[in-house]
Amino acid sequence: MLYDIKLVIRYAYEAPVAGGRHLMRVMPRAICGGQRLIAGSLAIGPRPSDRTDRTDFFGNALTMVAFRDGHLDLAVEMLARVEVAAVEEELDVSPSLPHLRDEIAAALVLTAAAPHHFLGPSPRIPSDAMIADHARAAVAGAETVRIAVERLGQAIHRDFTYDGKATKVDTTPRQAFDLKRGVCQDFSHIMICGLRALGIPAGYVSGFLRTEPPKGRPRLEGADAMHAWVRAWGGQEAGWIAYDPTNRIWAGTDHIVVAHGRDYGDCAPVIGVLRTFGGHETSQSVDVIPVGDPA
Amino acid sequence: MAAGAEQAIPDGAALIAGYRALPGVPDEMVDATGAIRPVWRPFLAALSRMNRAQIDKRFARADQYLRDAGVYYRVYGDATSKDRDWPLSHIPVLIDGAEWRALETGLIQRAELLEAILSDLYGPARLVAEGFLPPGLVAASPEYLRPLVGIKPAGGHHLHFVSFEVGRGPDGGWWVLGDRTQAPSGAGFALENRVATARAFSDIYGEMHVHRLAGFFRAFRDALQHLGELGEGRVAILTPGPLNETYFEHAYIARYLGFVLLQGDDLTVVDGQAMVRTVAGLRPISVLWRRMDAAFADPLELNQDSRIGTPGLVDALRAGRLAMVNALGSGLIETRAFLAFLPALSRRLLGEPLILSSIATWWCGGETERKHVTDHLDRMMIGPALSTRLPFDDTQATVLGASLRASARAAATAWIGKEAGRLVGQEAVTLSTTPAWVNGQLVPRPLSLRVFAARTPQGWTILPGGFARIGRSEDPTAITMQRGGTAADVWVVSDAPVEQTSLLPDVGLGFTRATPVSLPSRAADNLFWLGRYIERAEGLLRILRAYHGRLAETDDPDMPLLAHIRVYLDDLGIDADEPIPQSLVRNVDGAIRSAAQIRDRFSVDGWLALTDLGKVVGQFRARVTEGDDATRAVTVLLRKIAGFAGLVHENMYRFTGWRFLAIGRGIERGLHMSRLLAHLTGPKAPDGALDMMLEIGDSVMTHRRRYSVSTNDLTVLDLLALDALNPRSILYQLDEIRRETALLPLDKSGPPPSGLMREVMRIENGLAIRTPEALTSRRLTRLARDLERLADHFARTYMG
After folding, report:
1. Which residue of A127, A172, A233, A273 to mutate against B (max B Cβ within 10 Å)?
2. Helix (H) and strand (E) counts for chain B?
């Protein structure tokens, strides 16, 4: 599938902001054999006094911008054309949970794709006994890692209600778990927390969803803003597999990946440190249009 | 000397008559047969020639030094933390020079090894690929900082200043209990312990060949400056701030070595260059000796919740224009589990066996190791693999296998099996003992030693001495100072005379002066506010004294003058019914808080005078009653504040920092005078207001001498507003503000005189041309407003 993607994020500040410094992860990344960035541009207004573009530890495209002069608003506009490879109906080649432990130990690497980064607690996903219990109950009897991932994803979709007003960007997995409500970020955090408790390396994926569904399919939840889902390591053979608990589906050609990380903190579209008083308002719009598609 | 020492032994024997090493535990002073080790003999001989009173007097001398020097440490309680007097164990730990040299060789090898491991883990990670280190152990560590992977440190090294916690094991050899690679503390305290102990035993210290400590610090200071020459040449110490447990030491080391002490907020990063916000604008910095845990250093790329870091600092490292001592991420190898892998890593990376053993450690992530731990539970301390604390400092998280009841062993084994890689087992150690002075006699107490190593262009150098922690009881877990342990000096004693060094450069070698960093804006802000708070407190005290003095002498508390003053105080939000008002406490606390931020620029005496003032204000507030009692209390406080002001005035180096303090003080004094004059002169002022005004303005005598007429509005206004020779007058303040402002770095917003200077001159000239008749209450109130705006103008120009 070929997509044209447009993301616009705007900030309006109550008071002029000077000396702001931001990290942005908004450009779709390359994934070997899965996703290709054909062209992309990132425009920022006002013009930053300092800007560098590079990739971060996890291989995500990262832009640092700094502003010396005061400004009252900030606009980020990302345009990209991305090709997402069609996923074949996948054969389950993942091992059983006990065998996964051996495969993890045998992976003697610390590269970005190594499972080890995704096994322990991370800054925004501390381990949690309640979430672990929920995960264990959900996957009881699962023969393979892939089945366990799918069952947990389904259970989260079943047990939690999508509610854009219940949680905030800094809601902890446990708070969302107790509320039984939240958005893609919360569901992904809870699922990652549960998978790690089961010994399955799991990480956070930020990205986009196709705005309008193909004919005859329902519109996906979370298509009007940046979305989040989960990836899990299914052993040496199966590698990383990605599941979207918000929509109860395996991530496929409707999912465009921007960033991989341990949790939201590694993938946040904009991290900013401002020297300011007063609050700000944010708006975000996303369009993901298949190229050549009449819709 | 040796002969004399031996003759003295019989007396010495009396001194240590009751001294018995614990069975099976080596002792620093006596050997297995109970004989005194040679290195201790001269010291004990000298000690035994003293009587109890003499010894107490010597110890008191050391304690007095520590109090005078303001040495304290912070104890964390449940809800509050507080500063405590420094717990010095007065008997130094004596170590033979030859033995020390062997220890040094082992520690230097270890420092090289730790550097090589870090360089690999933040680079190609070959040690992981080759199976020498489990990737899961590295990845799980909160000190494995992913944004730093692939960044080559400026200057080429991760480690520049490390310390090792060592202890003597039952076999008599030294063991390393833990490596400190993040931001080791204690070197400054080691220096203070030395100065204090040398005070107590100045004669003995002078006669024995004890290695001096200053050479080590000089070598490291020069090494940091050398490192700085790779860039812009400036070196600073980065501290988390006054709330940190070892802030005293940060300020102390900064003063001792002559480096600027910075907080995260003092720094900003522009185009990959770290800059200090100073009163002269942004100034580049090339070396930061960091006393802050790495994760907090950059809220953008590291811990996003950090409020003490500098956004973009990692970018400056990436650009290679900032050397960090030690590199961010160096804390990775502090964790207990790493000790288990060092022997194999030494052979792999250095091609030689590890000279110094670590305390025996097994990482429970490996099956064989886990089995060994569970099979030998009795001999194990089991704790978190990623903990950076010593097992005996961390008794809450560490399980002592020997203390488990038989019924609990199966549960413990299951727990170890389940937690696996999150745990390590370490052999339960008994540390050697050293003599401590308890109730007039020497008793054996367990000892652990922190030894410091610094990288110089010629290689690693070891501080010949260190920081000894002495247990409170025979139980080795009672070593930590948070739990009542004490600290002692360490004397490395040579057979031959040792080199005498101090931080002063050698005569004849010339000297290089470190490129000074301009005054950081935050320091300027704190000095400015210190001046303002102190002056506010003083102004308020003067009003209170005049008020309560009159209150004590009248039987009519509602007389017009007193009511008039109550209105004035009320306008300032001060309740005149409180003899020592809350507002005074706030101002003194504000002064202490400001001073606490700039301890490195501030004399110890000044600090002690200020904290003493705070203490007494608190005591008075609780018990002083109005009238006569209050008058006397306020007089005491005024004397204390004058003492503080005198110390500052007499001792502070007249540079930029002093100017901000003086300007803050001048503005506040001008404000106080204009407001009071507006209230106490003019047709509405009640009887007695002018005399009171002169009293508050400390100008009663001058007035009597200068004016032949009786006190009236015009003479008072002339003396307290317009007389440029009266240090209490408004014009005097403006004159001083102008003179100090002229010497400040220029405000660049226009051609000189700067906008700020023009403003100072406008206010000053506007006042100077007035006659006393023209100084109406309205004009004085306007003047006060001008001064308030002037303060804001200073803040905007220099402290933004």
Report:
1. A273
2. 26, 21
